[in-house]
Amino acid sequence: MKYKRGTLADYPILELKLLNILGEEFPRDLKLPVDIGYEGSIMLTSDDYEFFSIGELPREYWRTYSTLTGYVLMRVARALAVIGDMKLEVYVETPYFGFEKRLVGRELLNRFIVILDGPRKLICIARVLTINYLTLLKTYHDLLDLLLLLRV
Amino acid sequence: MYVVFANGEFIGAFKTLDEVRENLKSLRPKPTHAIVLKVGEDVKPRGVLEWWEGL
Known about the structure:
The complex is a heterodimer. Chain A has 3 helices and 9 strands. By secondary structure, chain A is an alpha+beta fold. Chain A has one domain: Acid Proteases (Cathepsin D, subunit A, domain 1). At the A-B interface, strand 4 and strand 5 of A face helix 1, strand 3 and strand 4 of B. Strand 4 of chain A pairs parallel with strand 4 (about 50) of chain B, so a sheet runs across the interface.
């Protein structure tokens, strides 16, 4: 995904689909700015959030965030996010006293490998190739044994 | 396990999100808001979280 244009510096965005817990797809395109300063998963505007309030968590599970201007209480709901070919259960949040902001934060970003390629202005989701280290280790020991045998 | 409340009533406890979906869809009047808690997985925040920028 391409970075989005900023005033001075462009910034990474994550494009995803969101579904509410009824399986209904959120009808608007979501290209959410990546904000590692935000500890939560996905912040939406209060209008957006209404679509997901069919899966809201009890009030005791809502979160309070410390910000530069004081504390902000957020409503929290469960949703499903589709990112590439991954489908994840996620939390979406919105400030209790409505403000208009969409962000993706660390709680979601920490669930996969995100590569920020600043010079090329690209954000990529990477995948780990599983390597069987035991097999590698065995091969290494076999090689050592062979070298000893050959007295190299 | 998911515990669900809607239309001012306890709807039930369900093993999967699919069951939650089916049950919520079958309700009349159709709810626009429901409380859904995944027991054991949803955790009450133990403190204040960070949002460096803020509103």
